[in-house]
Write a structure and sequence with these properties.
With 793 residues, this protein is α/β, with parallel strands linked by helices. It has five domains: 27 residues, no CATH class; 210 residues, Rossmann fold; 108 residues, no CATH class; 193 residues, Rossmann fold, CATH 3.40.50.410; 196 residues, von Willebrand factor, type A domain (Rossmann fold, 3-Layer(aba) Sandwich). Helices cover 33% and strands 18% of the residues. Strands 1, 2, 3, 4, 5 and 6 form a six-stranded mixed beta sheet that branches. Helix 1 runs antiparallel to helix 2, helix 6 packs parallel to helix 7 and helix 18 runs antiparallel to helix 19. The longest helix is centred in the middle third of the chain and has 20 residues.
Length: 793
């Protein structure tokens, strides 16, 4: 409905290539859906199955709870053209993890999923909850939707055992922390009676995901199990949880009486308005149009849902390779929360200005741009091939070998989740070579006969067995070059060599620099072995191509293998792999094709006020900087002047036509508020004379006037004459009207030189409006203005 109602009619009125139209249609058609991925992790171990008689009764209750939950997973429609759709799957576990069914679309897959749950027979042995949670995480990441915020695990367990039992997959706390890092919310549901509350609390994302949730009771179909189902579903479908929670900031203009924009504010949607504006710019159509005739009064609508306030993101992390080597991440403060949000990939604040007429009818609420038209501003890492070379020699030790395999899987997961790398045929790929002594290399990689997806690859990595022999690293690297690099011929490749850096170079004479000979970025991770011997830094340097004519890589050393699983280190590794990722350019660049002389005509009258005048100066400096740093045929192509005005004989050339931003910026800072009457027609005549005296032959002449159209004792006829005089001098006029008390007929005369004839398209491209002076500095409005002034004909 969004595409048909809003965008397609717009596109039909434009002359735009059919291929682009088809691409836009395809890209926008899926944006109305809000998928939720839900995965059940069901405990069928001995402590559950054999706790009460008849044996298996609690397992039957868990299956009943799960099926009743599945019955309630139906599509839901929300305002702003959003359809919530469910994807659900399940597994059960004891000392083994058994997949019941992978994620499938509900309600179409309800019957099959319920049947499979009902057919479950309890295993009735040990309890490996950590392994089950990690398998659930894999299912959500591999088969789930790309909405990373809307992934949920429902872990139904009694929490046993508390102690004295080995957890083979890193432990319950490690599994829970991994889910939290990946943004997966985990509900912890008890199998009562005699459940272990401390363990259930560890599983839950936080206290709100634990509460008193229970799946069983001594009473058949008790109220508390039904309440558990209803509460969990309500938490998932509530508006705040459909998008990630953000630290509180000042109230956003998007929180309005109309509530139609209440859910706007997710970081991925920050560029919605801006991208749509720029897209419409290409169509030569503006969001601002003439006010239409009043339509018939419609029937009263139902009360709307309460909107959510949008707040600011306080800070974000950046990672560089120097932090990878030190293991410490650094932070850079983002701008303070303003009327909206700041995006990590572009400076863009999505507070919608109050009174942005005629598109906005309620303060700050877009009525003609539904939420479904939002675009994600994401950087792309890939396609990229990632190669792991894993030392499996005796000096590594079995436990360290298991940690190294876990490290590989975690890096893959983080690349998929954090960097949005798509490991699939035709895109990014992964391969792993493990080695020990002579001719012991084993290769598992995407593209193998039995590995057709990333899930199968990770399973193959888990099944690698410790070789426990000698260390022939050079031979292993040559094997990787011949067997794996020949298959992975991507332009972007990263090889990560995990070893203690103590290759037996007396027996293995193969050079350690084999991977350097091919265009591959090599990272050598040297870790201390089980004998606490330090890694050989010299060998690690050779592996990483240091001191060679090839592209140098990176050599990193750690004292023990446990440090590989440190959260910060994992983050830095994935960031290093994707350090050359490509980000969309939403900087709204300006390209001058010839010489241009631009003047900014600044209102300095009493009605502006001294504080607003200072804000205007900041806005003008941004405009000047944009013009003088734009792409241009030569350094002297663009010149800018600044003139301020007030009454009839109060015009000042604060900055003559110059090309040096530093000089002009100082002159703007030194501008003094005139604080008198307003005569915009006299100001325009002054600028026209300035162009006659100082402008270059053949240069485009453009002036941006800051005015609300109000002038004391000046008629529309006076303004028309001044504008027509400027037009005869080949000056193109743009007007920025600020405030809600604009004189509309005078503004029309300023823009076109006529008040009786209306040119809607021309006015839309030459007249800008902002509700107040503070809004001048918000978001990307200043970029839009400068781009229009610089590029419009």
């Amino acid at each position: 409905p969004v595409l048909n109602t809003y965008l397609l009619p717009l596109l039909t009125y434009t002359v735009y290539p059919e291929a682009i139209f088809s691409q836009l249609s395809s890209a926008l058609s899926h944006l109305i859906y809000c998928p939720v991925d839900l995965f059940f992790v069901l405990d069928t171990s001995e402590s559950v199955a054999l706790r009460v008689k008849p044996f298996g009764d609690l397992v039957a209750q868990v299956k009943s709870f799960t099926n009743r939950f599945i019955d309630k997973l139906t599509d839901r429609y929300y305002r702003c053209d959003r359809n919530l759709v469910w994807n659900a799957g399940a597994l059960h576990y004891s000392d083994d993890v058994v997949l019941i069914k992978g994620l499938d679309r509900m309600p179409a897959g309800q019957a099959d999923l319920k049947r499979r749950v009902s057919d479950v027979n309890y295993i009735g042995k040990g309890t490996h909850t950590d392994c089950a949670i990690k398998r659930g995480i894999e299912e959500l990441l591999i088969r789930g939707s790309h909405q990373k915020e809307n992934k949920y695990l429902i872990v139904v367990t009694d929490g046993h055992p508390l102690e004295g039992y080995k957890e083979p997959c890193g432990g319950l706390e490690d599994a829970a922390n991994e889910a939290k890092h990946l943004g997966i919310k985990v509900f912890s549901v008890a199998i009562s009676p005699d459940h272990l509350e401390p363990r259930l609390s560890v599983i839950a994302t936080d206290n709100s995901y634990r509460r008193n949730f229970t799946a069983t009771s001594l009473i058949e179909f008790p109220v508390d199990t039904e309440n558990t189902i209803e509460t969990i579903i309500d938490m998932i479908v509530s508006i705040p949880l459909l998008f990630p929670s953000i630290a509180p900031g000042p109230p956003s203009l998007l929180s309005t009486p109309a509530h139609c924009c209440g859910v706007f504010g997710h970081a991925d949607h920050l560029l919605c308005i801006k991208v749509l504006h720029n897209m419409l710019d290409h169509f030569a159509v503006s969001l601002q149009g003439p006010k239409g005739s009043p339509g018939p009064i419609g029937l009263p609508g139902d009360p709307g849902l309460m909107g959510e306030r949008v707040s600011g993101i306080s800070q974000w992390n950046m990672t560089d390779e120097k932090w990878l080597t030190t293991g410490r991440a650094q932070q850079e403060e983002a701008p303070p929360p303003a009327l909206g949000l700041h995006s990590r990939t572009a400076e863009c604040c999505v507070g919608v200005p109050t009174g942005y007429s005629p598109v906005v009818t309620h303060p700050g609420c877009l009525t003609h741009i539904p939420l479904g038209l939002c675009f994600a501003a994401e950087c792309k890492c890939g396609p990229i091939d990632v190669l792991f070379v894993l030392d499996s020699s005796e000096s590594i030790g079995l436990q360290n070998f298991q940690i190294a395999k876990d490290f590989i899987i975690k890096v893959i997961d983080r690349l998929s989740k954090d960097e949005r790398v798509k490991f699939e045929p035709g895109d990014s790929r992964v391969g792993v070579v493990q080695y020990s002594h002579d001719n012991t290399q084993e290769l598992v990689a995407m593209g193998d006969a039995n590995i057709n997806n990333i899930g199968a690859l990770k399973e193959a990595v888990k099944n690698l067995n410790w070789i426990a022999g000698g260390t022939y690293t050079g031979e292993a690297l040559q094997f990787t070059k011949e067997k794996l690099l020949a298959r992975f011929a991507s332009d972007k490749r990263v090889a990560i060599v995990i070893t203690d850096g103590r290759s037996d170079t007396l027996r293995d004479l193969t050079p350690l620099s084999s991977l350097c000979e091919i265009n591959t970025q090599v990272v050598s991770l040297g870790i201390g072995d089980i004998f606490r011997a330090s890694p050989n830094s010299e060998q690690l340097g050779v592996i990483a191509c240091e001191g060679t004519s090839y592209r140098p890589g990176l050599s990193v050393q750690r004292d023990n293998y446990a440090e590989l699983l440190d959260d910060t280190f994992l983050q830095n590794v994935t960031s290093y792999i994707c350090r050359e990722k490509k980000c969309p350019d939403y900087s709204c660049t300006i390209n001058f094709t010839g010489p241009a002389d631009i003047t900014l005509l600044v209102d300095s009258s009493t009605s502006v006020g001294s504080q607003n005048f200072e804000l205007t100066k900041k806005f003008v400096k941004r405009q000047v900087e944009r013009f003088l740093t734009a792409h241009m045929p030569s350094e002297d192509s663009v010149r800018v002047s600044v003139v301020q005005y007030s009454g009839k004989n109060q015009q000042r050339t604060e900055a003559p036509f110059l090309q040096n931003y530093t000089e002009i910026a100082k002159m703007i800072d030194d501008m003094e508020f005139l604080n008198d009457a307003t005569d915009v027609s006299a100001a325009l005549r002054y600028v026209t004379n300035l162009y006659r005296q100082s402008s270059r032959v053949g240069a485009n002449k453009r002036v941006l006037i800051l005015s609300d159209g109000n002038s004391q004792g000046i008629t529309r006829n006076d303004i028309e004459k001044a504008v027509q005089e400027a037009q005869r001098a080949d000056i193109t006029i743009y007007v920025l009207a600020i405030g809600s008390q604009a004189h509309e007929s005078n503004l029309q005369a300023l823009v076109t030189g006529k008040t009786k004839e209306q040119n809607v398209a021309y006015e839309a491209n030459h007249l800008f409006r902002m509700p107040d002076y503070n809004s001048l500095l918000q978001g990307v409005f200043y970029q839009k203005v400068s781009r229009k002034v610089a590029t419009e004909n």
